[in-house]
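Long-time lurker, first post. I've been practising inverse folding by hand and with some scripts of my own, and I keep getting stuck on stretches where the structure tokens seem ambiguous. Below is the full token string for one chain I'm working on. Before anyone asks, I'm not after the true native sequence, just a reasonable design that respects the backbone. If someone could post their per-position residues I'd love to compare against what I wrote down in my notebook.
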């Protein structure tokens, strides 16, 4: 990527001292922080205008630096768009007598939700055309669709700011009328009681955005009269409300990183008092499903680190009554389960690979679905029906496009309902190679790296390679197919997904060993994977790139402070980089609920440990790689000022002449653009940055 004559913005330095535990940090860019009120105000105050001016200067600088690649970026977007079936539709699924589906029309950004009564030949009933609803909005997200038991009404949620503060409304599906009452500041989810007129929903704290209260709404009454049925007062917990698959119980859940609690009522009696299932205990996690005369519980009780399945009578729910159904296994993580009339379905992970297991209630059958590849993703799909022998699951891999499959649990016959189409006429899965290799970390642990590349790509020190990872919250990134990634693979890139600690790829201990006071293992693992790839001639520092988003953006910030010489370029999307300041400030969304992930810096030990790796606090005068940083002005999860401050500090201290650009989408939040084509433009932007650094614009190997 060629440098431009345009001058990079130089942010003002206004020192602010932040004192904690007799330690003083000086933040020169604290002034970049705005409140929600300032961001949304129609009339800007001086500080707001100054911040917006700075972000727009950074955007202008980004445009100047990348101007020479703009034509290619547009071509890349069209290439990616050309692989997508624009008039696509989901596989219909049946729920309560209707077949529901989601479809797109050619040239349109947003989906259309529809249903058909009893059979697929019936007349289509359009529930929501999001294209029409989104008119006039830069950002529009429809979510939380929830149809009443009698199929006549639907609750729906909308977000037009991208802060995940949803408005709830109700639509009459018979008349098309949208009722005037609006419920503000919700999570977007809702639950119908069985009377078809009572709705439960979750409100957020307007400042911290913590899910804090459950309300009961009666159809036909103003939301101001809604009844508060639960208030989660512990600042380290959030709350939600759901309904059992059996439709017999409404369950309120409370959750923190290491503890959960549930309470329940019968869905037929929405005004009764909730009954506590099992009171919260630190380090006791459980989730509840109902079947017959029992509740089934996925839990880590009795030091079941990888979780186990237990059950208890619906009349005796305290933990002393729980009995094992699927015992704990040291080598297998029990990730989830689904209950059907005749089968229990288990989602497990063993040696990094996810598996689907079927176990009949009469114990006559117990078997796994066979999967032939070494790096793949298989997930139990939408299965709202209880009384069925057919389960729907999805399967894909680095080289295999996604398939939606119906599987008969009794006959073990399967039917592929849909295979993802890759248009453009160039894709052939036989042209790509996927494999899994194992790097050795500095403490001897083995780390899986799943690779995919074009069969014509030669692996040597000149091969460009993009290494990706996340490594937090126990989330394991699936080894899944991507049509957009083909644009890199076809140009000679290798894609490497590193399953570092902080995920649950190798079980719950893999997560525990990458959080709190072991968080640096996440960064060390990524760096050690990079060294492995270099030492084994998959690439070299001149051609190695790294990418991560959110907590994965924290990963990017940490590794370039620790080992910047290993990478030619970095993409950090919505990066969580000002860890100390954010975790100290309890007014920032999500902070208090994150203490059991990162540690509470009000504790001196955690404060100094977090400070020792926090990317913003550890920027120093040295050479850094080429860096693209992206963020959204309305991001509620990682506030825009974290990446903005980080870029300003990097630009002030770095000693190299490499590219450093910040792009802020002034209309969106954490998830980026809402339209399907707009999100493709963001991917084209990122890939153009990488391909520019490799001088591969306009050519395909």
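-- Answer (accepted) --
I ran through it position by position. Result:
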């Amino acid at each position: 990527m060629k440098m431009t004559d345009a001058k990079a913005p130089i942010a003002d330095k206004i020192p602010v001292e932040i004192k904690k535990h007799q330690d003083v940090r000086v933040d020169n860019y604290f002034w970049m922080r705005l409140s929600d009120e300032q961001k949304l105000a129609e009339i800007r105050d001086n500080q707001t205008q100054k911040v917006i001016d700075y972000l727009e200067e950074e955007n202008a600088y980004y445009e100047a630096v990348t101007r020479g690649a703009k034509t290619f970026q547009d071509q890349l977007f069209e290439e990616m768009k050309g692989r997508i079936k624009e008039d696509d539709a989901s596989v219909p699924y049946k729920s309560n007598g209707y077949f529901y589906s989601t479809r797109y029309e050619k040239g349109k950004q947003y989906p259309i939700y529809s249903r058909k009564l009893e059979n697929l030949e019936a007349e289509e009933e359009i529930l929501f055309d999001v294209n029409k609803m989104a008119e006039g909005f830069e950002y529009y997200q429809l979510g939380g669709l929830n149809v009443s038991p009698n199929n006549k009404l639907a609750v729906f949620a909308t977000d037009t700011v991208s802060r995940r503060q949803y408005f709830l409304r109700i639509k009459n599906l018979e008349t098309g009328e949208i009722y005037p009452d609006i419920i503000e500041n919700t999570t977007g989810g809702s639950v119908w009681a069985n009377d078809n007129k009572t709705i439960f929903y979750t409100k957020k704290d307007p400042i911290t955005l913590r899910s804090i209260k459950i309300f009961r709404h009666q159809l036909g009454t103003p939301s101001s009269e809604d009844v508060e049925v639960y208030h989660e007062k512990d600042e380290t917990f959030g709350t939600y409300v759901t309904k059992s698959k059996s439709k017999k119980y409404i369950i309120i859940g409370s959750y923190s990183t290491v503890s959960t609690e549930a309470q329940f009522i019968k869905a037929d009696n929405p005004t009764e008092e909730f009954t506590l299932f099992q009171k919260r205990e630190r380090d006791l996690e459980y989730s509840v499903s109902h079947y017959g005369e029992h509740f089934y519980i996925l839990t880590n009780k009795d030091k079941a680190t990888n979780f186990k399945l237990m059950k208890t009578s619906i009349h005796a729910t305290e933990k002393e009554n729980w009995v094992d159904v699927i015992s704990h296994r040291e080598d297998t993580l029990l990730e989830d389960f689904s209950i059907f009339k005749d089968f229990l379905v288990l989602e497990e992970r063993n040696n990094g690979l996810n598996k689907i297991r079927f176990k009949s209630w009469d114990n006559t059958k117990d078997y796994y679905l066979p999967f032939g590849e070494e790096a793949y993703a298989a997930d139990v799909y939408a299965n709202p029906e209880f009384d069925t022998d057919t389960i729907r699951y999805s399967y894909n891999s680095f080289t295999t496009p996604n398939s939606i499959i119906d599987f008969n649990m009794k006959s073990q016959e399967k039917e592929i309902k849909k295979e993802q189409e890759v248009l453009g006429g160039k894709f052939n899965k036989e042209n790509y190679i996927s494999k899994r290799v194992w790097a050795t970390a500095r403490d001897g642990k083995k780390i899986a790296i799943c690779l995919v590349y074009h069969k014509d790509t030669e692996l040597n020190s000149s091969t460009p390679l993009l290494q990706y990872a996340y490594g937090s919250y126990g989330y394991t990134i699936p080894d899944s197919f991507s049509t957009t990634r083909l644009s890199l693979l076809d140009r000679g890139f290798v894609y490497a997904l590193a399953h570092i600690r902080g995920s649950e790829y190798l079980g719950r201990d893999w997560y525990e060993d990458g959080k709190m006071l072991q968080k640096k293992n996440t960064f060390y693992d990524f760096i050690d994977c990079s060294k492995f790839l270099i030492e084994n001639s998959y690439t070299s520092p001149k051609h190695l790139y790294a990418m991560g988003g959110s907590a994965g953006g924290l990963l990017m910030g940490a590794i370039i402070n620790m080992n910047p010489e290993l990478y030619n370029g970095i993409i950090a999307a919505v990066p969580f980089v000002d860890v100390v300041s954010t975790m100290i400030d309890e007014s920032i969304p999500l902070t208090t609920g994150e203490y059991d992930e990162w540690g509470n810096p009000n504790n001196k030990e955690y404060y100094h440990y977090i400070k020792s790796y926090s990317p913003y606090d550890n920027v120093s005068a040295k050479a850094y790689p080429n860096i693209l940083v992206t963020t959204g002005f309305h991001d509620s999860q990682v506030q825009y000022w974290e990446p903005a401050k980080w870029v300003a500090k990097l630009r002030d201290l770095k000693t190299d002449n490499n590219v450093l650009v910040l792009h802020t989408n002034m209309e969106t939040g954490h998830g980026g653009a809402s339209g399907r084509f707009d999100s493709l433009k963001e991917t084209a932007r990122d890939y153009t940055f990488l391909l520019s650094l490799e001088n591969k614009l306009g050519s395909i190997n």
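A couple of notes from the structure itself: The longest strand covers residues 183-192. The two ends are 19 Å apart (CA to CA). Happy to go over any region you disagree with.
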